């Protein structure tokens, strides 16, 4: 990093007391004169080097002092921690650089990091750390997290032709349905009072709850205070298909034929309320509706509710059941759906592929069990990773199309990393939103290349396996991102035989790839119609609690 200091220029509030100690130096106003003796700390270039250390070189000729700065992170030296596109230096190279600058008449200093910082950014005051202690999913690959993860690693997909009579005559008849009768998983009497989206949510949330070591009977049986537990669910339309069915009955058979539970089964908030009812969670039951970013935003909101002490535990994720004739017809009218079909033997959902032509509509649910770190430690919970941060932005561009510049995605990514107390060089993988639409995939690729540099971060996209689960996509893909951190493997992107030209992303294809070790942050992206952008940041590493 280069800095110029002019003794005559007033200091702005931004630079007077800069807290970003990794790359910035506070200007003191001290005069630097030509020929002044060089000052070098005693440890100098020969010192033991650790992450969080900095080397600075200050030119001492002329009225302006120009400083260069390198910071050590993940064993290498970066000129700018938020510009990973620039090639870092190794330890021998930084020593050679420091020696060269000394010989050129620079003032060179080695700034050793404080012994307790471990090279990490200081935690924000008043914020509790949030960890993931349970996972749950029901997807087109099957019931449970195990089926999801194995299907992703195997490169399988759950997309099929829709052969029901209700789909006859539709221009597109390809979808990704959960391959099980939900009445086998939800008691029939209870299922009759719930829309399909709520049923999916209940199955996934209960798995996450039990995966976290909690009693399926509920909060009290698990030894938890019900008032300190919350639910946060993302969904787009909830039970809108119930309303469509009610309208059909009204038109065909009159008002008395409309079921009395039509209204409570229609509202999007039914999923959150049913999870709350099933586990006796009384802290809060929140619903987020922000198009296809809903699931990720619901998780982000739950992180903040725990961070700032509103609750200690939260079930957070997304759910959706939108594979219905009316919605399929609507998406087809937008020309948003893939027309490739499954006859070719490969998935018709082809993220980042040269021949991609739209998404495949799907259904499912995915949930994380989130806890305050101290709460998880107190009960001896297994921890998958830290739910480190999240970021939002809005494109303000078009009712449905993404901003082709990727500017909104860029902002959401940077905000998520900053919220996690991290820098861009800490990011080692991105789980892309990539729905296989021509414009959407390109906008995301442009943004990722702009933020991280072309081809520098391994990227995967899971909608080739799952289809687009709409409001559930962020929840299910967050589960996959957590498992990527736990197992150290990035699932491959399927359906992309040949990548589109000019994407500039390092797309993982063919087989799983080992997760890089030179960092600790994984991002999961979700973007929705209307310019809703949400990014989740997850961190691996020891948190002082049992890790399974």
Supply the key terms.
single chain, alpha/beta, Peroxisomal Thiolase, Chain A, domain 1, 2 domains, 14-stranded mixed beta sheet, 5-stranded antiparallel beta sheet, disordered N terminus
Description:
The relative contact order is 0.14. The strands form 3 sheets. Strands 6, 7, 8, 9, 10, 11, 12, 13, 14, 15, 16, 18, 20 and 21 form a 14-stranded mixed β-sheet that branches. Strands 1, 2, 3, 4 and 5 form a 5-stranded antiparallel β-sheet that branches. Helices cover 28% and strands 22% of the residues. It has 2 domains: 53-111, no CATH class; 130-540, Thiolase/Chalcone synthase (Peroxisomal Thiolase, Chain A, domain 1). The protein is globular. Residues 1-45, 116-120 and 544-548 have low confidence and may be disordered. The longest helix is centred in the middle third of the chain and has 16 residues, at 196-211. With 548 residues, the protein is an alpha/beta fold. Helix 9 crosses helix 15 (473-487). This is 3-oxoacyl-[acyl-carrier-protein] synthase 2. GO terms for molecular function: 3-oxoacyl-[acyl-carrier-protein] synthase activity. Residues 1-47 are annotated as: Disordered. Keywords: Acyltransferase, Transferase. Pfam families: ketoacyl-synt, Ketoacyl-synt_C.
């Amino acid at each position: 990093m280069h800095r110029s200091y002019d003794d005559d220029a007033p200091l702005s509030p931004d630079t007077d007391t800069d807290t970003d100690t990794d790359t910035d130096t506070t200007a003191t106003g001290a005069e630097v004169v030509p020929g002044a003796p060089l000052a070098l700390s005693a440890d100098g270039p020969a010192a033991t080097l650790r992450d969080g250390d900095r080397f600075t070189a200050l030119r001492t000729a002329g009225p302006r002092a120009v400083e260069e700065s390198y910071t050590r992170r993940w064993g290498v030296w970066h000129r700018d921690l938020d510009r990973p596109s620039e090639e870092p230096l190794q330890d021998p190279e930084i020593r050679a650089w420091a020696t060269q600058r000394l010989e050129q008449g620079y003032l060179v200093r080695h700034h050793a990091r404080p012994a307790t910082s471990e090279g990490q950014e200081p935690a924000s005051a008043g914020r509790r750390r949030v960890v993931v202690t349970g996972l749950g999913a029901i997807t087109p690959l099957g019931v449970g997290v195990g089926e999801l993860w194995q299907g992703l690693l195997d490169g399988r997909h759950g997309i099929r032709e829709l052969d029901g009579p209700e789909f006859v005559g539709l221009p597109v008849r390809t979808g990704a349905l959960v391959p099980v009768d939900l009445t086998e998983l939800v008691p029939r009497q209870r299922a009759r009072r719930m829309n399909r989206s709520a049923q999916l949510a209940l199955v996934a949330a209960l798995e996450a709850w039990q995966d976290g070591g909690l009693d399926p009977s509920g909060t009290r049986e698990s030894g938890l205070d019900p008032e300190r537990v919350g639910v946060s669910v993302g969904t787009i339309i909830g039970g809108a298909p119930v309303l469509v069915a009610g309208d059909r009955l009204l038109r065909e058979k009159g008002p008395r034929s409309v079921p009395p539970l039509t209204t409570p089964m229609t509202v999007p908030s039914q999923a959150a309320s049913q999870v709350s009812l099933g586990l006796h969670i009384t802290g809060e039951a929140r619903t987020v509706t922000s198009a296809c970013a809903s699931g990720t935003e619901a998780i982000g909101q739950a992180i903040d509710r725990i961070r700032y002490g509103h609750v200690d535990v939260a079930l957070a994720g997304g759910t959706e059941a939108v594979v219905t004739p009316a919605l399929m017809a609507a998406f087809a009218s937008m020309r948003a759906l893939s027309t490739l079909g499954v006859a070719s033997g490969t998935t018709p959902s082809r993220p980042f592929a040269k021949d991609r032509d739209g998404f495949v509509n799907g259904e499912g649910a995915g949930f994380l069990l989130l806890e305050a770190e101290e709460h998880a430690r107190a009960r001896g919970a297994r921890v998958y990773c830290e739910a480190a941060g999240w970021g939002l932005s809005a494109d303000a561009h078009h009712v449905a199309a993404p901003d082709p510049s990727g500017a909104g995605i860029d902002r959401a990514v940077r905000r998520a990393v900053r919220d996690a107390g991290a820098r861009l060089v800490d990011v080692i993988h991105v789980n892309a939103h990539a729905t296989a639409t021509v414009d959407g995939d390109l906008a995301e690729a442009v943004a990722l290349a702009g933020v991280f540099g072309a081809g520098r971060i391994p990227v995967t996209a899971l909608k080739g396996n799952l289809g687009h689960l709409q409001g559930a996509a962020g929840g299910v893909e967050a589960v996959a991102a957590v498992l990527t951190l736990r197992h150290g493997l990035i699932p491959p992107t399927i359906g992309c035989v040949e990548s589109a030209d000019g994407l500039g992303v390092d797309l993982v294809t063919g087989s799983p790839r080992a997760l890089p070790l030179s960092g600790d942050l994984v991002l999961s992206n979700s973007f929705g119609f209307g310019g809703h952008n949400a990014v989740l940041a997850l961190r691996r590493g020891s948190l002082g609690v049992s890790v399974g």
